[in-house]
Amino acid sequence: MRKIASVAAVFAFVLMVGCGNATDNANNATATSTSENTNNAGTTNNAGTANNQNNTTDAVTSASVVDNEEAFKRAISPEGTWIAATLKDLTFTEDLVVDGEFMNKEEPARKIALYAQDADHNITNSFKLTAPKLTIKSKNARIQGGTFIGDVYVEADGFTLVNATVEGNVYFANDQYKSTFNSSDQGKVTGVTEVKK
Fold first, then answer.
1. DSSP string, 27-92
2. Verdict on whether the full-model pTM lies above 0.85
């Protein structure tokens, strides 16, 4: 019964976050349709992204809710979605990479959601993601609502922890990436946060 409740809570979360309000959806759908219709050279792949001749990505806002390691790796890949939400703790023996350019509300964004929530956006369960190394290559990526166990290597601007903990270190490829790091909304790092070249 708890599993059904968790699945329902995550589904509600996905609908609220992924769908937004009707105005945003109408604008997003219009922008996507216009982009696809005016660019005859564009193609749409099965991950919901439109690719033009210049190989830039205009991702449609959506989420991947996963309950296994392979699905999670696909969700954080360039062919994934802007949100990768898990339904349980996940453990990897290999390194993970968050990569790809995705948009949310007309801004670059990626989110690893390590929690379930109710209809009022209250976190009902938090999850752990474990890997030796997590490399962040997507701009404005964030880990939210749970715990990552391992070291994080940041190679993009705007990495954020929101109500989340990194049990390990956070290393930045340069000073610029470190200067855009934000953990002010209940984010915590148990190790060091430093530039490591």
1. HHHHHHHHHHHH-TT-EE-TTSEEE-TT--EEEPP-EEEESSHHHHHHHTSTTS-SEEEESS-EE-
2. no
Within a 10 A sphere around the Cβ of 70, how many other Cβ atoms? Answer: 8
| Torsion over CA: 51, 157, 22, 144 (sign) | positive
For residue 193, how far is the Cα from the chain centroid? 21
Tens digit of each residue's pLDDT, the chain (197 residues): 555 555 545 544 444 444 444 334 333 333 333 333 333 332 333 333 333 334 444 444 567 899 999 999 999 999 999 999 999 999 999 999 999 999 999 999 999 999 999 999 999 999 999 999 999 999 999 999 999 999 999 999 999 999 999 999 999 999 999 999 999 999 999 999 999 98
Largest CA distance in the chain: 50
CA atoms within 13 A on the CB side of 3: 2
Please identify which residue in the block is written with the tokens 């898990």.
86
Helix (H, G, I), strand (E, B) or coil at 129: strand
SS3 at position 140: coil
CA angle 56, 41, 24 (to 5 degrees): 55
